[in-house]
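Anyone up for a design puzzle?
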């Protein structure tokens, strides 16, 4: 019979030897960065979550961003941590919500305090990513905002099909495959 105490000690030693990677950008900072790219609110909780998901996917290889831990859920990619952070940011006076919570009309925007922090973050990331990349990220944010809830859901489900597996609505956004007629 194997000695369980030694197995536990070996596992702990292995964990102690691993390097812990500390993110340079917290989820709070990342949300402020995204909201601060364009001076207008993000409309809808679904849109906010999907924009954070898409920006994270785009930048995670170039920046050390805290992982929001997205998983497939009722409306595509979802993060419990992100939901908690948004509530904490509102309580801390960094963002403000307008409209009915959880609705498509709910708006998320930075407070003056949040805008000051976002401006510093954008300047910091401009040094790291370059002016052109920040310009591209601004265009990305504007484009995603224009898609609205239906458009961003369609985009996510078509480009990240694994995140539609547990979704209640993914079937609405199935890709139409055009092909040659029969005969």
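Challenge accepted. My sequence:
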């Amino acid at each position: 019979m194997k000695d369980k105490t030694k197995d536990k000690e070996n596992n702990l030693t292995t964990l102690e030897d691993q390097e812990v990677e500390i993110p340079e950008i917290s989820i709070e900072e990342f949300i402020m960065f995204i909201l601060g790219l364009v001076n207008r609110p993000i409309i809808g909780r679904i849109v906010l979550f999907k924009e954070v998901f898409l920006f994270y996917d785009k930048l995670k290889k170039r920046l050390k961003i805290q992982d929001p831990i997205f998983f497939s859920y009722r409306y595509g990619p979802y993060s419990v941590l992100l939901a908690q952070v948004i509530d904490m940011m509102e309580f801390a006076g960094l963002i403000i919500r307008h409209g009915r919570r959880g609705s498509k009309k709910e708006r998320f925007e930075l407070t003056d305090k949040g805008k000051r922090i976002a401006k510093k973050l954008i300047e910091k990331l401009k040094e790291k990513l370059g002016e052109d990349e920040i310009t591209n990220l601004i265009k990305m944010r504007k484009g995603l905002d224009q898609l609205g809830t239906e458009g961003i859901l369609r985009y996510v489900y078509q480009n990240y099909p694994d995140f539609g597996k547990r979704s209640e609505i993914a079937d609405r956004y199935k890709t139409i495959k055009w092909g040659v007629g029969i005969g």
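A detail worth pointing out: The longest helix spans residues 131-159.
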